[in-house]
Specification:
heterodimer, A: 382 residues, two-stranded antiparallel sheet, 6 strands, globular, B: mainly alpha, 19 helices
Amino acid sequence: MIYLFDYATLKVIWWAVVGLLLVGFAILDGWDLGIGVLLPFVGRTDGERRVMLNSVGPTWEGNQVWFITAGGATFAAWPLVYATGFSGFYVALIIVLFALILRPVGFDYRSKIADPRWRNAWDWGLFINGLVPSLVFGVAFGNLLLGVPFHFDADQRVFYTGSFFELLNPFALLAGAVSLAMLVMHGGVYLQLRTEGAVQARAIVAARLGGIVLLATFVAAGLWIAKGIDGYQIVSMPPADSAFMPVAKTVERLPSGWLHNYSKHPWTAIAPLAAVGATVLALILSAMSRALPAFILSCIAVASVVLTAGFALFPFIMPSSSTPGHSLTVWDSVSSHKTLQVMFWSVPIFVPIIIVYTSWVYRVMRGTMTEERVRDGGPSMY
Amino acid sequence: MDADVVALSRLQFAVTALYHFLFVPLTLGLSWILVIMESVYVMTGRQVYKDMTKFWGKLFGINFAMGVATGITMEFQFGTNWAYFSHYVGDIFGTPLALEGLMAFFLEATFVGLFFFGWDRIGKVQHLLVTFLVALGSNLSALWILIANAWMQNPVGAEFNPDTMRMELTSFTDLIFNPIAGPKFVHTLAAGYVAASMFVLGISSYYLLKLRDMSFAVRSFAVAAGFGVASVLSVLVLGDESGYTTGDVQKVKLAAIEAEWETEHPPASFTAFGFPDQDEQKTRYAIKIPWLMGIIATRSVDTPVIGIKELKKHHEERIRNGMKAYAALQKIKSGDRSPAAIHDFDLLKGDLGYGLLLKKYTPAVVDATPEQIRAAVDDTIPRVAPIFWSFRIMVALGMWFLFVFGAAFVIVARRRLANNQWILRLALYSIPLPWVAMELGWIVAEYGRQPWTISEVLPTHLSVSSVTTGQLLFSLGGFVVFYTALLIVDLYLMFKYARIGPSSLATGRYHDEVQPA
């Protein structure tokens, strides 16, 4: 067994890998989710809705795999996070799951029957599919920043002591609004790039609305984090290079604690700055009908928003509000040195391959989606 | 753990996994049938083979959506409902799941869109390559999932680490070359191919019985019959070797399949029929076939096949060792890291899982009474009757498939379909049977692994999350309602498009379509 990296380095690498998968998911699946939310509003007629659906028709399936793989990578690299997060947020996760299930069937079944009631019902299904995960992922990140109540017993079994409705607190809902507005903007800009006519005109309005709300909520959440929310900080722990359990460390809560990384490593401030800057520029370019650069900036904005939260939390993944010492961090929630090293190889091998073939599929399926193109595509179109 | 939480978690996993597997087999098998059909199209340039690829591809798509949708549940259910399992073995078990995403599911999901929408945008050969990659991706997915599942049956390449209170990977190659994984992979895949072949064979027979779309249907029938014969032979011959001889738990499963209470001295006989009685530990009205068991299970005539009563004696010993292992572990956990303490634990840690069985009766484990130990020993044997019957029905169905595909193949090869309408009816009404066989196969494999989630390492009753019965009733109720509605929609569309047939491609060449001028 060859160890290319020491254990502590691998722990940080895996934080970056899971982060990469989440950013990939937010960017690529983000516009699918956003288009789901916009479907009943931007698409007024069946023909318009089919244009929207087919603009992501050949690619949504691959985009969704970023989420599935992020789940698998979390299981493999951070088993305790996978166990604690998923069982702790049980009801929220089940609701997200039901919403996610609606997508494959919604896309595939909607246009197979012409009855308007059938199609309308699936359109609302696809709307829920976009809305619920967009909101809940934001709410989840909001709660991570607040810390959630859980602790471990001597057998390392986790007990989550909060309830579903406690997750819906004001700050978390604000974070949910950030996420929803961001994906509405993102989906709107994507539609601006890939469609024309009435759909495109309404998508531009939606993107503008989403972008403005994103700016307002993102800045508000930032101020709230700076002034009103305690961060978490590790006081003492065993060496980062060793294997230990979360309970082996001590953690304290301190005001403005989530700004700690930003003051200690000022370069990380590029994430929140880019989030704001890219959003503003995306909105300006979108208004100037420069769809491609607006789209690229929207991608940067989405990535930056996710990284802003990630940088603030590092090295925490899931702080415990009830027993801060049991918080999950990149140092103590991870798999063994061996597993992290074995799994490491899969990343430089497969991620570039995935990016190459995904790009190829996008290239093959490029071009503006129109009602004509949907008609000409025959019965196989969504 | 709360017994209701354990029971409901198991029920939910069983329901969602068996449901997911209603859709997996067609994805696995039909994708290769599409590759075969499209290859013929690319080689001969004949339009009918392109139409076949597109039409069966349409049915593939209806099914694929359900497979993907229900697969998401499986990916997250380990975390939501089996949190302690996820912590305890995530270091090993998570690896194949992550690799499945990176290596297989990405491939399958990215190219499936191009399969449906890329016909006019890429060349013939390129499109065939796309279809091939979808098939490859879905089959590689199955490979990783079955490696993970094989590890639950036979957890090789891992050991317990007291520093982290979990199992950790010691050998990645042991994990992927698990002796259980290979046969399991071939068996499961081939079973999927059988299901897909029966699906195409049966629906083609429907058109032939209705005397419509004949040239389309005969060709589809022929492809399905050929692929079906090869697949069913793989299932039966290569298939369920599934590592009978490896691992104690597989021995328990084998004994349960056979309802073999007493050790059979070589050459062991095979109980073909009977009524297993768990309480009395015997099988009533048993009909035995001499020698057969020994040959199947041990590939020899001189190795004994161990019976349940004897296995229980072994298990009692291991439970007692497990208590000592648990005590040694407590000593280490209390801070004693002396070489002696670690040595004590290392000596017995292989039986730690057996000790954990006692947690159901006494949280402290080491203070178990003889009655509690006896109860834990009884727990090591799953209910025999469901396994015994599931296995027999599965095997009988396998034989039936061999007959149907064999007959279909011979008849279509000799071009005698017109004189042999009976095979068309048999094929049509046999469509649901492969699904019955496969679900029963999973019941044998997973129910037969009880009381463990990870054989001999982690008992099922410890594996669950600390969730409430209320939460479980919410999720289970949601699944039942939601999944039932989806199944109705799926079957409705499947029947609708199967009835319409290739006319649904709107090419103007098929049944009931207005011929273009």
